[in-house]
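SECTION: protein entry
WANTED: fold as tokens:
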Amino acid sequence: MKYVTGIILFLLFQVTAAFSAPAPQIVTEARVKEVVADFVREKTANLGVETAIRRIGPIPELKLPAGAVTYEVQAPASWEGWGRANLALIVRVNDRVEKNIPVNVEVEALADTVVAVRSLERGDVVGPADVAVRRIDISSLSGKVYRSADEVIGKRARVAIRANTPLRGENLEKVPLVKSGQLVTIIAESPALRLTATGRARGNGAEGDIVMVQNLGSLKELPARVIASGTVQVDF
């Protein structure tokens, strides 16, 4: 009798536990995609680009324990928010990590971009008539792209550039205003005093670059900032 009573009590306990255990919660694929899409929108909100998600996932439906669910999306440090990327979605329940899911995304990004309107040869200096600003998809472009014509006018092509090609940072360089071996004017000034001397550049430099120059009077070498063609400035 005691044996039978024990079995009955055990079964009753099992039934009670089954009814009292909180049911798991289900997070749908649509909800996960919404979380990832919100992350992309926040990341690109102030970058002057119009993004559209081409693809997310696929992502499995998630079965989680009961509790407060929070999400964290992590992206590679070099990812700007468009193109292809492998993200990580961390899902927590009551601040405890329950899932860490890899998520593949592909994001289109439309942005005002400077393009060459004619072919440019290596060494050509970019003029106002050589470029235009057009709204294009930059998601497949690597490296820096120029967003304003003012950023490229006056620079020169490092390589040959075909017409209708978006201009990138690696395509252009500043035009050197000082060349190695050239005689330059060295300026040193303060609010109360201005001194000039003749020197010889020891390297090439564009506006704003720091080059070494030799003062021909003292024969000392010192760093100077290029401020104009044939002119450098040293700290006083």
Residues 68 and 94 are 5 Å apart (CA to CA). The chain has three domains: 22-109, 110-173, 183-234. The chain has a mean pLDDT of 87.
